[in-house]
Specification:
Blueprint: H1 15-24, H2 31-41, H3 55-64, E1 70-78, E2 82-89, E3 94-102, E4 113-117, E5 121-123, E6 138-141, H4 144-161, E7 174-177, H5 187-198, E8 210-214, H6 218-225, E9 232-236, H7 242-248, H8 251-254, H9 257-271, E10 276-281, H10 289-302, E11 305-310, H11 324-336, E12 341-343, H12 351-354, H13 357-371
Parallel strand pairs: 4-7, 7-8, 8-9, 9-10, 10-11, 11-12
Antiparallel strand pairs: 1-2, 2-3, 3-4, 5-6
Helix pairs in contact: 1-2, 4-5, 6-9, 10-11
The protein binds S-adenosyl-L-homocysteine and iron/sulfur cluster.
Length: about 375
């Protein structure tokens, strides 16, 4: 399922695996840290720039690894709030990485919160009825290197906005694994990528500022509960009863709520973390007050935070978001019971929602030329 390029991306190597590769070919172990420093602290664009490495080692690296597994083909800004990067992979597949700058109330733009949203697969196999990413099924998994390289692209994008200062990944507040794909369906690669993202020899991004969102792959949620990483978890719930949830999320037939909820509880307890329940509000599908009451009970029982997200329309799909009044009534049911709840309103917050749509458009536009 994972595309096997001629050379693996160097960004998929951990300190351990890179050390092992180097020493197996007769290079000293300490070179691994030097290479990683060039990659993540200095962010060089060519092997030649790794000036403290002997020439034969640089040649070996160039022959063994890919340095740029993704290429920027398009970046699109909307109202200075989101920056969508459309990236092309070695096999011409397209993925999206999004930067969101959400201004904080009463604070200047320079103090806005910055979030990065990354993709984990090309397409998605889960087939949620409302989602652009799943419309054409799963094409393939991303490798760990392709996942990590999205962050390198994000840093480069920031550099182009502020030509004099070099952007640091640490200047971002949050990183959400909410782009295209189901991250827990590509488990090993996402865990490895998050390890590299988080490690001091890697990108050094704090695990507490990373949120992984899943449609509810129960065995993998349990496995994640035992990982030492310390990331946050969000569950795409979107239905507070099996009846409603399985209408829009086929995954619910495999893992219904009676299996999903205990797994979420296990994660929350083992990790000592409040979990987020995401609930996109879709008119006449899941926006009834009965659903609000059931959601309130589930959230209260799990001590979970609820994120209500007005549905973002997708070309070709019939779903709509409810009126603001209806959204607010729904939120009120939860707030009145002192459940921690947010209702997203700002445009820039339609993050993940929009993720997958740019790629779909471009993919469809170029279809005739790729099949000719
Ligand atoms: N596959 C994972 C993560 C990617 S989707 C998951 O499903 O959780 C990230 C979030 O965007 C999910 O909560 C998903 O349900 C939501 N989403 C997808 N399409 C949307 C749309 N059109 N409007 C609003 N949210 C959407
Ligand atoms: Fe896949 Fe998530 Fe979209 Fe469902 S919502 S199809 S799991 S990306």
């Amino acid at each position: 399922m994972t595309f096997m390029p001629a050379k693996p991306a160097i960004h998929g190597e951990t300190l351990d695996t890179l050390t092992a590769r180097l020493t197996a070919d007769g290079h000293p172990a300490f070179r691994a840290r030097q290479v990683l420093e060039w990659l993540y602290k200095k962010r060089v664009r060519s092997w030649a720039e790794m000036s403290n490495l002997p020439r034969p080692l640089r040649d070996w690296l160039a022959a063994t690894f890919e340095l740029d597994p993704t290429a920027l083909v398009l970046s699109r800004q909307s109202e200075d709030v989101t920056d969508k990067l459309l990236l092309e992979l070695g096999d011409r597949s397209l993925i999206e990485t999004v930067i969101i700058r959400a201004p904080q109330l009463g604070v200047g733009q320079e103090n806005s919160r910055k979030t990065i949203c990354i993709s984990t697969q090309v397409g998605c196999a889960m087939g949620c009825r409302f989602c652009a990413s799943g419309l054409e099924g799963l094409k393939r998994n991303l490798s760990a290197g392709e996942i990590v390289h999205q962050l390198i692209q994000v840093c480069r994008q920031e550099d182009s906005r502020t030509p004099r200062a070099r952007a640091e990944l640490a200047s971002f507040d949050n990183l959400v694994v909410m782009g295209m794909g189901e991250p827990l369906h590509n488990y090993d690669a996402i865990i490895r990528a998050l390890t590299i993202l988080n490690a001091p020899w890697g990108l050094g991004f704090g695990a507490r500022r990373i949120t992984l969102s899943t449609s509810g792959l129960v065995p993998r949620i349990r496995q994640l509960a035992d990982e030492p990483l310390g990331i946050r978890l969000a569950i795409s719930l979107h239905g507070a009863t099996d009846e409603v949830r399985e209408q829009i999320m086929p995954v619910n037939r495999r893992w219904p709520l009676r299996e999903l909820i205990p797994a979420v509880r296990e994660f929350s307890e083992k990790q000592g973390r409040m979990v987020t329940l995401e609930f996109i509000l879709i008119e006449d599908v899941n926006d009834s007050l009965t659903q609000a009451e059931k959601l309130r009970d589930l959230a209260a029982d799990l001590h979970a935070h609820v994120n209500l997200i007005p549905y973002n329309t997708v070309d070709g799909l019939p779903w709509k978001r409810p009126s603001v009044l209806r959204q607010e009534k729904f939120a009120r049911v939860l707030a009145d019971a002192r459940v921690s709840v947010t209702l997203r309103r700002e445009k820039g917050h339609d993050i993940a929602a929009a993720c997958g749509q740019l790629r779909l458009k471009t993919e469809r536009q170029r279809e005739p030329s790729t099949t000719a």
